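Problem 12. The chain below contains 107 residues. Write out its predicted structure in token notation.
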Amino acid sequence: MVKFNIKSMDVWHGFAVNELGINLAIPGGKTVTSEVTIPADMKDGIYTMYCSVFCGLGHPYLKGQVIVGNPKLFLGVGIGRALPYFATMAMAIVFAAAVVMGGRKAR
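Solution.
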């Protein structure tokens, strides 16, 4: 049994994980609680959670992960563990380059 406590800090959102049969609507400023039983025959893995209620321009990017089973199998091996750090560093470099290039045009 897994208990999800989900709070929307702004507008209506949804919380959905297809493989677990979850699809909740969360009103803005409210918390919704749901208990879900993970089926015994469900494969260990990483499942996508996403917002299922249109909430604005960033809606398509509201995704996350639910890990079922042993997280060490998925997060502790190889590049999977370091990938978020590389992605953050790449975005910082792109941002810095945009600032420098933008500053040159303003002069």
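Discussion. Helices lie at 72-75, 79-106. Students who got a different answer should revisit the alignment rule from Section 12.3.
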